[in-house]
Write a structure and sequence with these properties.
Number of strands: 8
CATH architecture: 3-Layer(aba) Sandwich
Radius of gyration: 16 Å
CATH class: Alpha Beta
CATH topology: Aminopeptidase
Number of helices: 6
Helix content: 25-40%
Strand content: 35-45%
Number of domains: 1
Order of helices and strands: EEHHHHEEEHEHEE
């Protein structure tokens, strides 16, 4: 089982016991705009997803990990590598910390750092990318901290609360 250790947290593979946590995140309408979710997910579908979470990133083209504080295996967030493309050695990356109290604490920064190291060192990726709403100041600051560069803006890309919003494409190329 994949576990990545940091100073204050660790990242681990999803377990069947994460059903309630993943269900809560996937059905939290306040974060649908960053996850591009448009309809609720049933517990049945999430249970099926978790049952197939054992699939290798090369097979599933995605790796979703639970973010956990050290000393507690209970998840506080999720971090994903998605659209994994081994031929072109790239993947997208996304992160969510569920509770407001755990945001702006450094957990997101530590988790993203662990995933970047894993992607470049273990998976031998050449680049990572992130799609970030131009109004999402916290994510913009987080990703630019690691050297992600804005390479373009998709105008009126997302329709949120009856208004179109821009989305920026950020890229980090391994040096």
């Amino acid at each position: 089982m994949l576990t990545l250790q940091g100073q204050h947290l660790f990242l681990r593979a999803l377990e069947p016991e994460d059903l309630a946590f993943v269900y809560a995140i996937e059905n939290d309408e306040t974060i649908w705009e960053v996850s591009h979710t448009q309809t609720p997910y049933s517990k049945f579908l999430i249970r099926q997803y978790l049952e197939n979470a054992y699939q290798d990133i090369y097979e599933a083209k995605q790796l979703r990990l639970a973010i956990c504080k050290k000393g507690n295996a209970e998840a506080i967030g999720l971090i994903d590598l998605f659209d994994f493309d081994p031929k072109n050695r790239r993947a997208g990356v996304g992160i969510i910390i569920q509770e407001e109290a755990n945001r702006k604490t450094g957990f997101g920064k530590e988790a993203l750092g662990l995933v970047i190291d894993y992607a470049f060192q273990q998976l031998q990726l050449h680049q990572l990318y992130a799609n970030i709403g131009t109004e999402n100041a916290a994510s913009l600051a987080l990703f630019t901290t690691f050297g992600f560069e804005k390479i373009g803006v998709k105008k009126d890309w997302n329709f949120i609360h009856n208004t179109f919003h821009d989305e920026a494409l950020f890229q980090l190329i391994k040096k």
